[in-house]
Design goal:
heterodimer, A: 126 residues, alpha+beta, Beta-lactamase Inhibitory Protein, Chain:B, domain 1, five-stranded antiparallel beta sheet, 2 helices, 47% strand, rod-shaped, B: alpha+beta, elongated
Chain lengths: 126, 144
């Protein structure tokens, strides 16, 4: 058993001497605040009120009975690990999104909210 | 002269083993996930009954909105990219000239998708979904 100790130690030493790790974080940031959304009333709030509250949308889509304003931002977290001959990379991207639907008179009819950007996480690919 | 193997055995072995192994074989695994998981809503949603308001309350904001043939389409999407690569080579360039190198790489992007189509009145008219992530990486990438 002792004769394996030295090669094993050498292998472990090599493993750690030639290893490295890295982390990265990317933000596609738009400064909208979703906390005031409950002040918007379907059937009453207008597109002007929405843009006053949330700012300019990231995207506007024409729909069959009006428009949809889309507000979107993202957070990505990346992890890299290099262990001698094996390397691992993981990249996790999540979004905060608000989609607000307006009728042809620019009155808000519905909205959907997903606030998931905080769920982006560092990690390994398994 | 005293052999360096006797004076600094660990350092010499480390250098030799490290140089040989890192020059010969490498394997990499990369995963990229974008978006949240897509719910299975077939038991919850009913064509002709579920409204746009209910869908938005249940699923949140869609990743894409579009008008298609007079209907409003919401798309929920999650993508999963898997990449792996194996490289094997013997770096003989300095002592011999030509070297030997073999490498194999594969990249697979799978999508979980949910498409909901609504009438202009906001009633669900069509559901379509695909669960690409249930397909295993190696079996899928090696198939034709």
């Amino acid at each position: 058993m002792n004769r394996f100790r030295e090669p094993l130690f050498v292998l472990l030493l090599v493993f750690f001497l030639q290893s490295c790790a890295g982390w990265a974080k990317n933000k596609d940031y738009h400064p909208f605040d979703a906390s005031g959304l409950d002040k918007l009333i379907p059937g009453k709030s207008t597109a002007t009120q929405v843009t006053e509250m949330l700012g300019a949308p990231s995207e506007i889509v024409k729909l069959s009975n009006g428009n949809a304003y889309i507000y979107r931002r993202s957070l990505s977290k990346g992890t890299g690990l290099w262990l001698l001959i094996v390397s691992f990379g993981n990249y996790d991207k999540h979004y905060d999104q608000i989609v607000i639907f307006f009728d042809k008179k620019n009155t808000m009819t519905h909205y959907g909210v997903t606030l998931d950007a905080h769920k982006a996480a560092y990690g390994l690919p398994f | 002269m005293v052999s360096p193997f006797k004076v600094f055995p660990f350092l010499v072995y480390s250098f030799l083993v490290g140089s040989l192994i890192t020059g010969c074989v490498s394997y990499r695994v990369i995963k990229v996930v974008e978006g949240r998981s897509v719910s299975n809503i077939f038991e919850e949603f009913r064509v002709g009954a579920t409204t746009l308001k209910e869908a938005l309350e249940t699923l949140g904001a869609p990743d894409q909105v579009a008008e298609l043939e007079g209907k409003d389409v919401l798309i929920y999407r999650r993508s999963l990219l898997s990449n792996s690569g194996l490289s094997f080579g013997i770096p003989l360039t300095d002592i011999w000239g030509p070297g030997f190198d073999f490498s194999a790489y594969g990249e697979l992007v799978r999508y979980d998708l949910l498409l909901l189509s609504f009438t202009p009145e906001g009633i669900l008219s069509e559901i379509a979904s695909a669960k690409g992530s249930r397909y295993p990486y190696f079996k899928t990438i090696l198939s034709d």
